[in-house]
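Q: I'm teaching a short session on how sequence maps to structure, and I want students to see two examples side by side rather than one. Could you give me a first protein with its sequence written out and its structure tokens following it? Keep the formatting plain so it prints cleanly on a handout.
A: Of course. Example one:
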Amino acid sequence: VANNKDSYHYFQGVETMGDLLVALNKVDDALKYYAELEASPFDDLKMRAGVARGKALMAQSKFPEAQAAYEAVLLIPFNPMTQKGTMAESQRFAAVLGRTQCQASNKQYDEAIKELEGNVIANLNPEESELQAQAYVTLGNCYNAKPDGKKAALLAFLHVDVLYATVSAAHAEALWNLSNLWIDLGKNERGQECLNRLNRLYPGSPWITKKRPI
């Protein structure tokens, strides 16, 4: 990155540096790289940068700033007639998904559910496994926060378990929630089976040590 600013791969390197710094919990340093990516002359890279910045800010629990980053992505011109199926469309879905996660963090569950069901999940390509898994996990968490939402939450998390188990982070979270929801619904054996799979498939996951909600 430092020595090859004219390289075709320069912006890819900048994004990777940002992602690595987020993984090392050096979010402030990562944001500097994402700002450089956002200053690129290409709209699709600006969108990737905005989504990455939103995720990094959420990692710091700075949800209003993260939502502003996602909103900025959605302001970038997009033509559904010519850009459908492109990376730009994927990034728009990622931005909408990020916005719903910010809404959920602010307990705006109904707004987030409406957006997820009516906009994201309904229109997102089923092969977009990462985004679909994240969408269903977010939907499950929103329903789970509502007093009458347990069965809808169970269905959302089951979508991840059945259809998107290859997305490991989302699958681990889904299994943990499924284990608790099955127990809440009086299906203790199913709950234990999900917990067993969580321990077997993801032995290093933080969800293993997360306590069951009271």
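Q: Perfect. Now a second example for contrast.
A: Example two:
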Amino acid sequence: MKIVVARPRGFCAGVDRAIRSVEQALERHGAPVHVLNHIVHNAHVVEELRGKGAVFVRDLDEVPEGGLVLFSAHGVGPDRWAHAKRRGLNVIDATCPLVEKVHNEARRFSDKGRTVILVGEAGHDETLGTMGWAPDHILLVQTLEEAEHVAVPDPANTAYITQTTLSVEDCRAIVEVLKRRFPEIQAPPREDICYATSNRQAAVVALSPEADLVLVVGDAESANSKRLRDIARGMGKPAHLIPDAGAIRPEWLDGVTNLLLTSGASVPERLVAEVIEYARALGPCEVEERTLVEEDVEFRLPKELLK
């Protein structure tokens, strides 16, 4: 079997920053450090940080009054900030800067009285946070059908923004519908889908044609990981999203001579290495890392950790 390992893969700058934020907070303040929601959508990362002293909560009322809480990479709406202030909590904001950019766009467009159409996934932590910044002016669109039927009060006074982890092609198709229906719709100054999402999707598109099977290491809650699997399937390839090597079914590999392996933006590299070891245990393997683009993006830690 030949295993082509796509690069870039794994941690993006926002995820790396969020994990380092928790570790730095634990080092500086000691355990426990409370984290609102999962810091990133990967159960392995969450468990590792829990073992170091992080406590993950779904509600700010679970944090002791006056305590320390860290907001995750997915960001939150202003209601969570107000809630934290009422309870006297000390906040470390690990929101990904690229998600914060979308928040700022939502706020800026709504402050100008525009109806904001958010292309995103209902219930996703990032989407919930973004919608909180323009609750009276924002509409969520998830599909082409919804884009065809969404109603706005003033078509000439509309803008769109997008979740950062969407399928590039699916998002482009939805935006084309919105532009056709609302020719005067305002776009964000720069594309909202983040560089890491775009790069990982482009790698799957480029490398899938030569693969008999595509394995994506990632969490079932990870939007960007699910997109990678779906893109490969859309290209007619058998593709599976797996949290780790333990989820591989041996029959998937029957007759496979070319395997494409990649991982979502919140996946530790060791989980990819374990999949390679699993395959090697079945028989001889040639492993080739294929680089589509070099990534050198790095975000500074939150200002609360730089004092």
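Q: What should students look for in example two?
A: Point them to this: The chain has a mean pLDDT of 96. Also worth mentioning: DSSP finds ten helices and twelve strands in the chain.
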